[in-house]
Write a structure and sequence with these properties.
Layout: E1 6-10, H1 14-25, E2 29-33, H2 37-56, H3 62-71, E3 72-75, E4 86-89, H4 95-106, E5 114-117, H5 124-127, E6 137-142, E7 151-156, H6 164-174, E8 178-183, H7 190-193, H8 195-206, H9 212-221, H10 229-236, H11 238-251, H12 262-269, H13 297-320, H14 326-335, H15 343-350, H16 352-366, H17 375-383
Parallel strand pairs: 1-2, 1-4, 2-3, 4-5, 5-6, 7-8
Antiparallel strand pairs: 6-7
Helix pairs in contact: 1-2, 8-13, 9-13, 10-11, 13-15, 13-16, 15-16, 16-17
Length: 388
Amino acid sequence: MSQFPVIGIIGAGTMGSGIAQVAATAGHNVLIFDNIFEVANNSIQIIQKSLNKFVEKNKLSKLELEKIIRRVVPVKSLKEFSNSELIIEAIIENENIKQKLYSELEKIVTPNCVIATNTSSFSIQKLSEQLIKRDRFIGMHFFNPPVLMELVEIIFSSETDSVLPEKIKSLLINWKKVPVIVKDTPGFIVNRIARSYYLEALKILEEKIANIQTIDWAMREFGKFKMGPFELMDLIGLDINYSVSKSVYKSFQNNPRFKPSELQKKMVSENQLGRKTGIGFYNYANGNIQIEPTKDEKIGKEICYRIISMLINEAAFSLEENIASYEDIELAMQKGANYPKGLFDWGNEIGYQNIITILNKLEFEKTDKRYSACSLLLELDKNKIKIK
């Protein structure tokens, strides 16, 4: 293993343990640290349990499992990372705690050691601002669970060494992941574009156009999504979903496209967080959903195309701002958000002129700038080709 033979992982929770498993499976020696050593030690059992599932499915031999486990070593001190060539931080989403950790790390590691963060929401530039060597810092955003989810967003800031994103991309391809390179921007690709899936569904609900069940049915039936937006918010947790929406909205200087829902805010304040509290948009106390959707094809298609139009519009804004390539935006939404197809493929299928018409009609009817169509949609429609 010539590239990054020793990898350090900081944070031994679900994400940290999962990333450690991925790295060890690819042949790296992995050191894993947590503030509580017992947690780091227990990560071995978490990894073993996960690997056992692969053995049961005949995707891994017992001998291979033992070799992988031996490559993961829990450590008691950050000082043991002194020879690591790459360190991936996967701790609590707290900006100050992360920055303090990086400053501490910089005193221990070699000048060439790459320091990466698994953050899903913070600016890479901001996180690195207290580092002396900011060119070594990069984002490696894995999706949960990291063992199964293929996508990894590689996020670079204006100070990241220009060759580092491609170096990390090469590493992740060896890890059998699907890496996409993203400019440092709020929400990166997936969390930014996916806001429309949730926020527009909430808007439709607040406008009393359809109930929760009907909106979810419309997206499954006509969009072929695996889960409707309300089912998905309940699974993620309304508190987490609302927090990301707030963060993106604030980072985009209160752009109306990202305005959080007042209904969701109220539900979070009442601890109706979804599956984890037993009640969210659905009531999980009885283990079933009592209300049936209104299976009206006309309403269902209108809901579906309205939400998809907003998703495609946001993808177009992302491309216009050069946060990532056309191909990487397509890959990210399929592999990170599990969308049934790429949004630009969808745009070509529906017709960008039809999407512009839907958005213009919504903007006129509701006098709401959230529906302002991205100017790039016109260019995509005119050229009928991929814009790089």
